[in-house]
Amino acid sequence: xxxxxxxxxxxxxxxxxxxxxxxxxxxxxxxxxxxxxxxxxxxxxxxxxxxxxxxxxxxxxxxxxxxxxxxxxxxxxxxxxxxxxxxxxxxxxxxxxxxxxxxxxxxxxxxxxxxxxxxxxxxxxxxxxxxxxxxxxxxxxxxxxxxxxxxxxxxxxxxxxxxxxxxxxxxxxxxxxxxxxxxxxxxxxxxxxxxxxxxxxxxxxxxxxxxxxxxxxxxxxxxxxxxxxxxxxxxxxxxxxxxxxxxxxxxxxxxxxxxxxxxxxxxxxxxxxxxxxxxxxxxxxxx
Length: 287
Ligand SMILES: NC(=O)c1ccc[n+]([C@@H]2O[C@H](COP(=O)([O-])OP(=O)(O)OC[C@H]3O[C@@H](n4cnc5c(N)ncnc54)[C@H](O)[C@@H]3O)[C@@H](O)[C@H]2O)c1
Fold this sequence. Notes:
It is a single chain. The protein has 287 residues and is an alpha/beta fold. The chain folds into two domains: 3-182, Rossmann fold; 190-276, Orthogonal Bundle (N-(1-d-carboxylethyl)-l-norvaline Dehydrogenase, domain 2). Helix content is 45%, strand content 12%. It has helices at residues 3-6, 17-28, 40-59, 95-108, 124-128, 162-174, 190-206, 212-223, 229-236, 238-252, 261-268, and strands spanning 10-13, 33-36, 72-75, 86-89, 114-117, 137-141, 151-155, 178-182. The chain has an eight-stranded mixed beta sheet with strand order 3-2-1-4-5-6-7-8, sandwiched between helices. α2 crosses α3 (40-59), α7 crosses α9 (229-236) and α7 crosses α10. The longest helix is centred in the N-terminal third of the chain and has 20 residues, at 40-59. It is globular and about 55 Å long. The mean pLDDT is 95. It binds nicotinamide-adenine-dinucleotide. Nicotinamide-adenine-dinucleotide binds next to α2, α4 and α10.
């Protein structure tokens, strides 16, 4: 383990699809992680989920197979943060929830502690309004799962400070991640494009023009995408896709982002994609 890794003590708030995957990446790279979720059941399952994902990532060679892993602790609380050097917020994509959570986190940590939001679409400056020290907040949009996809979108808000950017760069180096730094705005770069594409693909299926398998086959076969838009939506989680589209629609007024009816129907029916075993496609196992 390098000095750079031992210098970090990370808290991840939100132990869903992304929180557990980010915790996996960090412990797999030797960083100690304190993983918390407001839902005691989610917090209770988080340790096993991280262990399973870690085994998978090590088997696939995307995380080191040998060498020490970081210690993982899990907890059903958000405010009782131990002394940490950085906190990654990865709670549900809802502005009210994120604002409340970030305000609690910011009140609980020492000034200068790096605060990261893994929001998919909410402008970082909007969230910065909720924290005691807006200069400490940086957006890092991790991909799913981050231990397989090494590049992240880093969002520097207008009030993000140089020290926070330097701390984020150092943390990403310890996680062996590559970063592309972009400006702030709804959906940043990836989701401004991707969420609209997913919504349009779902609309095409809704109109009966093509099946989900045909849509995805075209994107893979003709455009060389590794995964089509609807399999990507299932991987993200359709509830999260609908939340991100709402965030984009509310902030841009652009109807292309209004979540289409068939997507909302799937969310209402609990067909949330891979994590639920069914979405646009059927899925065998859930992690
Ligand atoms: N799913 C993806 O592919 C993906 C990719 C990149 C970014 N994101 C973003 O990551 C964030 C989390 O998404 P997810 O897919 O993991 O969602 P998820 O629904 O799987 O998990 C969210 C978790 O947050 C917890 N939570 C809610 N309020 C909380 C609070 N106040 N304190 C602590 N925990 C709380 C919930 O109990 C839940 O376990 C969202 O902002 C999402 O947009 C998701």
